[in-house]
Amino acid sequence: MPPRKRKNSSTTAKAGSMEKDTTSEAVEPSSSAIRAPESRPSVPLEPSGRQQVKKAVDKKSLSMLNKLYYFCTRRPNVHDELSVLVSMFGVHLGRKDSHTMRPKGWVSFMVILAAGKIMMEEEKATNGAVTRHIFSPQFMSKVLFRSNLSNEEDSYKPWCIEDVSQFISPIKLGYDINQCKFIFAPTLFEEHWSCYAFEPKEKTLYVLDPMQNNLSISKKNLDDATKRRFEELLVLMSPGLTEENASVTLVYVDVPRQKNNHDCGIYVMKYMEIWDGSIKWQDKSMPDYQDKEIQKFRQSFMCGWVQHPKNEVRETILKAAQVWEKLG
Question: What is the pTM of this model?
Answer without folding.
Answer: 0.79
